[in-house]
Design brief:
This protein folds into 2 domains: about 80 residues; about 70 residues, no CATH class. About 35% of the residues are buried. Helix 3 crosses helix 4 and helix 6 crosses helix 7. The protein contains 10 helices and no strands. The protein is mostly helical.
């Protein structure tokens, strides 16, 4: 972890370093390229390919046949290609965004798993500014510093994430850079957790 102050200045320095310091951030270009190539309007097969890539890149623990239980990927792909998902993914309403992630997290009905990490990552890759990634590193940090209760409530998670964004002077709803949420997510993942 690098030592960045949690402030506007620290965040701006991180973004600058992210783009220029290949030694510290060797993964940055491939992550940004993947984000650039991610398709939003998809059919089931394209959704399935993107699901597989997200699972592989970010260890979202989907089974893909590694379990005796039914493979959830087809159900997730069908939901992503559905009118219900496609009509809401471009939302600017935080409540709609939270509900969509929850619906996707529950879409693997056969196994009954709640796939919050996967769902937030998939939606984040569609619109980084509206869908913060829920992962254990971010959740722990927001729990320790921004009153997140970590009850797997994505609406509450967005609220805590927004309080963090206020601290670094970023408004993800109004910002012009469509990738700002991507940078914020990487910032949380890379700040020294001893630096408040």
């Amino acid at each position: 972890m690098l030592n960045y102050e949690v402030s506007k200045k620290g965040y701006e320095q991180f973004k600058k370093d992210l783009k220029t310091n290949n030694e510290a951030f060797p993964w940055f270009k491939s992550e940004l390229d993947f984000l650039d190539s991610f398709k939003i309007k998809v059919d089931c097969e394209t959704a399935l390919q993107q699901i597989k890539t997200i699972n592989s890149k970010y260890s979202t623990h989907l089974s893909f046949g590694k379990s005796e239980l039914a493979d959830e990927s087809r159900e997730l792909a069908a939901f992503i290609a559905s009118k219900s998902f496609q009509s809401r993914i471009g939302t600017k309403d935080i409540d709609v965004a939270a509900a969509l992630v929850i619906d996707l997290a529950k879409a693997a009905k056969t196994r009954g798993r709640f796939l919050l990490s996967f769902a937030s990552k998939y939606c984040h890759h569609c619109y980084p500014n509206m869908f913060p990634i829920y992962d254990s590193i971010n959740a722990i940090y927001l729990k320790e510093n921004y009153s997140y209760k970590d009850k797997k409530d994505y609406g509450e998670y967005i609220d805590a994430y927004s309080r963090f964004c206020q601290k670094i002077d970023v408004n993800l709803v109004t910002v012009s850079d469509r990738y700002e949420g991507f940078y914020v997510d990487k910032f949380i993942n890379n700040i020294d957790k001893n630096t408040k």
